[in-house]
Structures are given as C-alpha cells and as structure tokens.
Write a structure and sequence with these properties.
- By secondary structure, the protein is of the alpha/beta class.
- The protein has helices spanning 19-26, 34-46, 50-70, 89-96, 109-113, 137-141, 144-149, 174-185, 203-215, 225-230, 261-264, and strands at 75-79, 101-106, 126-131, 157-161, 191-197, 236-244, 266-272.
- It has a single domain (19-272), classed as Vaccinia Virus protein VP39 (Rossmann fold).
- The protein is built from 11 helices and 7 strands.
- A 7-stranded mixed beta sheet has the order 3-2-1-4-5-7-6.
- The structure holds S-adenosylmethionine.
- S-adenosylmethionine binds at residues 19-20, 23, 57-58, 61, 79-82, 106-108, 111, 133-135, 161-163, 166-167.
- One of its GO terms (molecular function) is methyltransferase activity.
Length: 274
C-alpha cells in the first residue's frame, strides 16, 4: 500500500541495475536480478572489497543504533533503508527500547514490495514504511504515515546510511542541501548518523564503480573527508567523530583492524543537534 492506502502498480525496472538490489547481492541476499548481478560483478572486479565494505556498513548501523537506543533515543527515521536485511534497524532499537518507533523510507519500489519485513516490530513499539524520494525531503517529513508514527517536536535519530553518494549534484551540492533541510526540521537532541562512500583511498577503483552506476542511470557522488564532515556542521559529534565505518566504536578492539581504510571505503559519523 502507498501512503494513501492504495495498492500501487509497481514497475521494478528489472532491465536496469538498481542500487538496493546490487547492495543486496553484495550482502549475500536473494533479492536481485540478472542486471543487478552483472553490475555487482563489475563492481567487484573494480573493487574486490565491495562485499566486505557492505557488511562493515551494516555492522556500523547496528552499533550506532544500539548506542543511540542506550542513550535514550526512542524515535528513529531511516532514509534509504534498502531491502530488509536482518537485523534491521527496528530490531536493534526495539531490543533495547521495546517501545521505539521507527519510520523507514526508500524510493525504490522493490523495497516497498519487501516492506512487510520492516513492519514486524515489537507490539510495544511501532514501525512504518514511507515510499519517498529524499531529494524532496518535505515529501518524507510531511508523509501522513511518518507524522502518525513520529512526533517531530521530540528528538529523532535520523540515519542516512550509504544513501547520499547516490544523490547527483545538478550543479549544486544537492546531498548537502537535503541534509541541511532535514537537520533544520528536527528538534534539539535529535541525532544524525551518516555513512558515505569515498574515493580518498582508492580513486581509480571508485571511478570504475562510478562508471558502473552511471551505466545504470544512478549518480555516484563521492565525498572527501572534509566534504563528509561538513554534513554535520553545527551538530556535536557522539563517539569518535568522523572515521571509517569499522573504526566507529568497534565492539572488540580487533574489529577496527579487520579492514584497511581502502577496503572499508566509507566514512561514518554520528552527531547530536544542540
Ligand atoms: C546501498 S543501499 C543502503 C541501505 C541501508 N541504508 C544500509 O546502509 O544498509 C542505498 C539505498 O538508498 C536508496 N535510495 C537511493 N536514492 C534514494 C532517494 N533519492 N530517496 C530515497 N532512497 C534512495 C536505494 O533505493 C537503496 O535502497
């Protein structure tokens, strides 16, 4: 069902590789088609650590969510959710805060078709799915289902994991503008969690990965560490600040050594609105 309660006609565009399905393939999931596997194969040829990087990104999401739930966050907004992959964010949050409310958002219809797995939350809590495009952030924040689930006058833990590098620039830094819009709409005490691919360590490989996405019609806009850091301007970092995803508060000290910066290829940070 869409946000109006109607069942939409879904065109999955199986002829074209999609970022959500490529990512699912890299994670060892089952929701991908020939075009996605072909694109993922090219990505792996250019950047053999792509599968490990995807897993590192997922593990970071779980650690950051645990930390925020322990810190008292009970409302979560996850944009660019992807195809459900256990543990999903609500499972992590509700294990610690059973009453946590979680809204998931993605613009890929394949995620909508799998959203049921995201809606099986704890009875004390609540989860909802909103199909929306983050480049129109007002369509996310104003979605009736979001407003029925989250109280935007109270702190919200916003996550944009492995999403912003798929937002093209159009002459201006669109991703940055989207983040600023979302930051402005959230109440003090809200948090922002972002992971973002970078070419800082492997420029040639990332250029080839970008070419694969370009062929699929998906922009791939990488950020340097300085550009990534700017996304958090005005907010206070929680934990170590900007680092590679696997080095953000590792569960065991040895986990920070499980990959090189070039293999992780993704910056991560969490910050709070003063
Ligand atoms: C690589 S997946 C990341 C999934 C999950 N956040 C994670 O980190 O494990 C990127 C997701 O962003 C979604 N996405 C890309 N562009 C988007 C947009 N403009 N609005 C909303 N979602 C978008 C894709 O459909 C895909 O599901």
């Amino acid at each position: 069902m869409d946000d109006t309660g109607r069942t939409p006609v879904v065109d999955l565009r199986l002829d074209r590789a999609h970022s959500a399905r490529i990512y699912d393939y890299l994670l060892g999931g089952r929701t991908h088609f020939a075009a996605d596997r072909e694109a993922a194969g090219r990505i792996l040829a250019a950047f053999p650590a792509a599968g490990a990087a995807a897993r590192i990104n997922r593990d970071f999401m779980a650690r950051a969510t645990r930390r925020l739930a322990h810190d008292g966050m009970v409302q979560f907004l996850d944009i660019g959710t992807g195809i459900p992959t256990s543990p999903n964010l609500h499972e992590v949050a509700q294990r610690i805060r059973p009453g946590a409310r979680v809204v998931y958002t993605d613009n890929d219809p394949i995620v909508l078709t799998h959203a049921a797995a995201l809606l099986r939350g704890r009875p004390e809590g609540r989860t909802a799915y909103v199909e929306a495009d983050v480049t129109r952030p007002e369509s996310v924040l104003g979605a009736p289902r979001l407003l029925a689930t989250l109280d935007l006058t109270r702190p919200v833990a916003l996550s944009l994991n492995a999403l912003l590098h798929f937002i093209g620039d159009d002459g201006a830094d669109r991703g940055h503008a989207v983040v600023e819009h979302l930051k402005g709409a959230l109440a003090p005490g809200s948090t922002l969690t972002i992971t973002h691919a970078t070419a800082d360590f492997t420029p040639a490989a990332m250029a080839e990965v970008g070419a694969v996405y370009a062929r699929a019609g998906t922009p791939f806009r990488l950020r340097t560490e300085a550009e990534f850091r700017r996304l958090f301007d005005g907010w206070e970092f929680i934990g170590p600040g900007v680092t590679l995803s696997h080095r953000w508060c590792p569960d065991r000290p040895g986990d920070a050594l499980r990959a090189t910066s070039a293999e992780a290829a993704c910056y991560a940070a969490v910050a709070r609105k003063p």
